[in-house]
């Protein structure tokens, strides 16, 4: 069965930057890329809307189709500029809610990855990834790779896997290892633990045995400032990509919607992989 990557796009510069990651990943795993553009039909809120509703839909769909048709060649140009014209690319245009359409498509068909860019926030009060990307990462049952808006493609040389070394992390760890192998990247596994909540029983030794012939480091840092410690680790260890198992949504939301995200927006700009339960 051929491998497939779903690439939701709004044709913004952020999504075009992310498209290079999608193409490079497709090239590495011999996959095709299916782009997805989702638009919303405006709500009619005037008197006697029913008699005009068909016309509204027709005009909106035609307008979106024309815009879509005009934008698609630019994706092919990006592929050509990066010597990736050989990647098979197909396109889907749908009306509806972006997150719901992604969930529907990935439920009905198997995709190896969802790759998407995000515009992020323009101020400290706004989230780093934006509402849609955060929802896709936490709600869609697929491996999701999110590329921040100013992230320019570069080879992935070192990945960071955030973990508590729990048994339920093992499958995600193996998926992350496979991705690291695809990129030919080294891996740092990192656990942040407080003095009061140290987990005496974990999978670290089992994982070490599993990866004894691979370039994988296993680390634990003690402290209370989880977000700050992760940020410092990313900066000091030259991390190119973060991966994590999304099973603890409260932690996930805290990590990528609040304090760390605000710091990341100003200090670091790297892709994040969310691996579902």
Give your account of this protein's structure.
This protein is an alpha/beta fold and 277 residues long. The chain folds into two domains: 3-147, Rossmann fold, CATH 3.40.50; 158-270, HUPs (Rossmann fold, 3-Layer(aba) Sandwich), CATH 3.40.50. The chain has helices spanning 13-29, 49-81, 98-108, 131-139, 170-183, 204-210, 226-236, 249-257, 259-267, and strands at residues 3-8, 31-39, 89-95, 113-117, 144-147, 158-162, 186-193, 216-222, 241-246, 272-276. Helix 2 (49-81) links the parallel strand 2 (31-39) and strand 3. The radius of gyration is 20 Å and the shape is globular.
What distinguishing features does this structure have?
single chain; 277 residues; alpha/beta; Rossmann fold; ten-stranded mixed β-sheet; globular
Number of strands: 10
CATH architecture of the largest domain: 3-Layer(aba) Sandwich
The number of domains is 2
The CATH superfamily of the largest domain turns out to be HUPs
- By DSSP (H or I, 4+ residues per run), the number of helices equals 9
Global Rg: 20 Å
Principal-axis shape: globular
Mean pLDDT over the residues: 80
Strand order of the largest sheet: 3-2-1-4-5-10-9-6-7-8
Order of helices and strands: EHEHEHEHEEHEHEHEHHE
Structural class: alpha/beta
Low-pLDDT sequence parts: 52-57, 121-129, 257-267
Q: How can the largest sheet be summarized? A: 10 strands, mixed
CATH T-level fold name of the largest domain:
Rossmann fold
β-sheet strand percentage: 15-25%
Helix content: 40-55%
Span between termini: 23 Å
- Per CATH, the class of the largest domain reads Alpha Beta
């Amino acid at each position: 069965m051929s491998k497939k990557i779903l690439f939701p796009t709004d044709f913004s510069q952020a999504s075009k930057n992310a498209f290079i990651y999608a193409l490079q990943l497709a090239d590495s795993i011999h996959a095709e890329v299916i782009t997805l553009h989702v638009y919303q039909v405006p709500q009619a809120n005037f008197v006697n809307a029913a008699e005009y509703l068909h016309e509204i839909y027709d005009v909106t769909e035609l307008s979106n189709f024309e815009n879509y048709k005009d934008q698609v060649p630019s994706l092919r140009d990006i592929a050509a500029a990066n010597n990736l014209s050989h990647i098979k690319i197909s396109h889907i245009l749908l009306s509806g809610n972006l997150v719901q359409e992604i969930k529907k498509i990935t439920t009905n068909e198997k995709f190896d990855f969802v790759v998407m860019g995000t515009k992020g926030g323009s101020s400290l009060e706004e989230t780093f990834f934006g509402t849609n990307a955060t929802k896709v990462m936490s709600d869609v049952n697929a491996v999701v790779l999110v590329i921040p808006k100013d992230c320019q493609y570069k080879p992935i040389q070192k990945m960071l896997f955030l973990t508590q070394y729990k048994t339920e992390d093992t499958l995600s760890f193996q998926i992350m290892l496979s991705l690291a192998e695809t990129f030919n990247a080294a891996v740092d596994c990192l656990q942040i633990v407080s003095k009061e909540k140290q987990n005496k029983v974990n999978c670290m030794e089992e994982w070490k045995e599993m990866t004894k012939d691979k370039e994988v480091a296993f680390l634990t840092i003690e402290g209370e400032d989880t977000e700050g410690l992760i940020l410092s680790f990313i900066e000091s260890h030259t991390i190119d990509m973060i991966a994590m198992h999304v099973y603890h949504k409260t932690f996930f939301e805290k990590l990528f919607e609040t304090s760390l995200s605000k710091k990341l927006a100003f200090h670091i700009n790297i892709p994040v992989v969310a691996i579902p339960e």
